[in-house]
Amino acid sequence: MRNIWNFIIGIIVLVSKGSKAYYCWVITLLVLMGIGASAYIHQLDEGLIVTNMRDQVSWGFYISNFTFMVGVAAAAVLLVIPAYVYGWGPIKEFAVLGELLAVSAIVMCMLFVTVDLGHPERFWHLIPKIGLLNFPQSLLAWDVIVLNTYLALNLTISVYILYSLYCKREPKHNFYTPLVLLSIPSAISIHTVTAFLYNGLGARPFWNSSILVPRFLASAFCSGPALMLLIFLLVSKYTKFRIKDEAIQKIAEIMAYAMFINLLLLGAELFKEYYTDTVHLDSFKYLLQGLHGHSALVPYIWTAMIFNVTAFFLFLIPATRRNKTTLVIGCILVFIGVYIEKGMGLVIPGFIPDTLHEIYEYAPSGTELLLAMGIWATGLFVYTMLLRIAIPILNGDFHVADNGVGSFIGDEVFLSTQNLEEGKAVEEKPVASH
Amino acid sequence: MSEIKKNSYDQHRSRRKFLKGMAAGIGLIALPGNDASASIWEEFFQKHFRELSKDELKGVIARLEKDYSKKYGKQVTVKTTPPIEGVRYGYALDLSRCIGCRRCVYACVKENNQSRSPQIHWIRVMQLNKDKGVALSHAEHYYNPEKVPEKGHFYMPVQCQQCEKPPCTKVCPVQATWKENDGIIVVDYNWCIGCRYCMAACPYAARHFNFAKPGILAAEINPVTHYLGNRPRPKGVVEKCTFCIQRTREQPGRYPACAEICPVGARKFGNLLDTESEIRYLMENKRVFILKEDLNTQPKFFYFYAT
Amino acid sequence: MKILRTACPTLVLLGIISLLFLSAESVSAAKAKEPDRSGQSTVTEKSAAELQPSYNIKNRPKENTFEVPRPPFSEGIFPCTQCHSSMKPNPQRRTLTDFHTDIVLHHAEGERWCTDCHNLLDRDKLRLVSGELISFDKSYRLCGQCHGDKFRDWKVGVHGKRTGNWNGDKQYLLCVHCHNPHDPKFKALKPLPPPVRPGALRQ
Predict the structure, then answer these.
(1) Is this structure's pTM higher than 0.90?
(2) Does A46 touch chain B if contact means CB atoms closer than 8 Å?
(3) Domains of chain C, residue spans
(4) Looking at chain C from residue 60 to 79, which residues have their Cβ under 8 Å from any Cβ of chain B?
(5) Residue A131 in contact with partner chain C when CB distance is under 8 A
(6) What is the value of ipTM here, to two decimals?
């Protein structure tokens, strides 16, 4: 018990120390979070009329972001499988960072759904037994369960492993390995359930194709690892934590296959709609060409397509995959491409044209953009804090003090190019505790 | 150093604004007036309509009637009339008669206390072309000629179809919307969380959301309401046609407001289980069809051609 | 690894079982709340969804006696005999110049004229083809001679506006309440305003 208390105090001290870059980053995030919060208060006050969502397009920017972030969260499993099922060392040593990313992504998902609700204070209606959860009929009810399960699993696993390392104990295999193996179907489930929630609607033929679930999974396995690779490259560069090159290459290789499947499935979808040429083609027409003069999404989706295809080749060709610069470019292209394709490019054409074939063209309002930005900042903030704790633990710079009292913090300069210089002596300052 | 100071000032300012907002929010709940705060807590903890005991329901109704009467300055009653046994409502619309005058739309607005600003209409009339038939992709929703009907066009109003297999009730995560015994799909406005999944699921665009606080003048309020029907709604919940549940469940049952006001008698309503009703007569003798039959929602709103 | 092989599937199985348990409970709970579709009353102390007893469907108007409001005569025009009792009946087809000049016949005017429907000798009555005289209150019988399909539909309430109660008394209208018998085509109306476009829907 005392250990846990010291751990918490240690965390608080740890996160308040860092380099100048760290402070700038965190403060910027806090400011953005504040702006997002005030946008949310404005929205709570006036109602969702401050967004541009209307009856015809009843889901918009918030749900687009939610859908995308569920994919990012699911992709943590891409690290877990090689690490724990195949016991591959190079990935295993930082798989926990992927799980922490999943945690931050799920937090963002929950925030996006909460801000989209008309009555967020009635969230307790969703709790089984206390409220009235429509399980198993409603896919949203399934989503509530699997997202919380996935969050709980990942939190448990990562907190357990990190805390054990903090206490300088080997984490017990028999405890966390079953949980980790359970998190694999859990990760697949969150994204499958999210896909099903779109898929099961006969009213929306744009989503009602069986291929939606594999498309979701394929695009998740591109976008999530793209973000992870970018973060891990940053971590490798700016902290004392080192990630082996072969691990990064392996992830990039898997992404190439995932992107191939993503493009293949998209091609299949396009063939079916364009060749059959029924009324249901209208949604695709709106997305790719414009419909009856409305073409707001056309430039975005084509940008996404070009980005995706380019990134595919960058990941496929070993030379560009090995080159750090092109790898980074590829990751950025994939992330943005899938963000567009699976975010607005998926949700909005489902509503345009609407079920009575009316076209209301939707673009997010200022409040929506600010609030979404605030939630992104929150997610990044959460992940920054988690990394600030996890990386020193993994490096052995944050653990129970040698004298058994309080915790030892050896890393005061998080996120700094100082760390690039090997052999630089870091001052050892044990933190005294009560 | 000054850079950090400026950032922390911004941070303080936005933090202050945030805290102010939070304090205001908490203050609203902890109002000095006992009644107001008690009412808010009661509303927050209110159970689902179908789980309320007789006494709890009485308490809820009393609270609602008090709130509405105070707000609109007239005595508002909230009924909870249950379904009539042996009744399954059906609606039929005569496409050979509808002239697209929209009197049904506005009669519904008046009867069912819909928000005038922002505007909500439970009925949407579509203008179609006679040479293209019932082809929704060629419909015009915003027609506004001098006189209707216009040559070469016919008109098709659409509202909640009260499906036998509703896709909307399937997807609601909190069971805030369900099908009653008499076939009417209802919403418990005090249970709905406003996720709008049902709106994505409805193939007929029949469900509408209160994006803002409904704007109705006190003079415009219809004070005879039903809990599951036309009582004034809060913002952030979904609403839709309920076949005028406050009228049709009475004994003897009145017609829905739209059926009553139609000047050409294009709207017919009755009990599908009554073999002698007008709705059964026309189903057996006229050419009847339903919208989007391939979705297998089995609507109870039928379209027919009398001639 | 061996322990993993057993532990992992066991855990997955446990997870699935607990989910099913959860689901089974809420489904049965939902079932308890769902009203009984057989129509049987299942009233318990807690349930608010009581069912009302059956209504009386015997309340139906008898054949050929329909409650209708007064015919929409122009002011002062009825009874017709106040003028016509003192005039000599003239069966000759012509354009009227002295009176009733506002009436222009647009109703099978090639085949008929006034006295085919208005009884020549007693103007307070209408004349059926069989020679039978009927009062203006029953003018639907006259219309129904040629418009039999509309008449059949009107009798059951399918044609034309009928108000009242869907399971009780009904209020019929005469044909002439909506259709001017001399120019019966329904006149076009000015439509009420279209809905506000969603883009313009700010409060």
Answers:
(1) no
(2) yes
(3) 104-178
(4) 60
(5) no
(6) 0.91
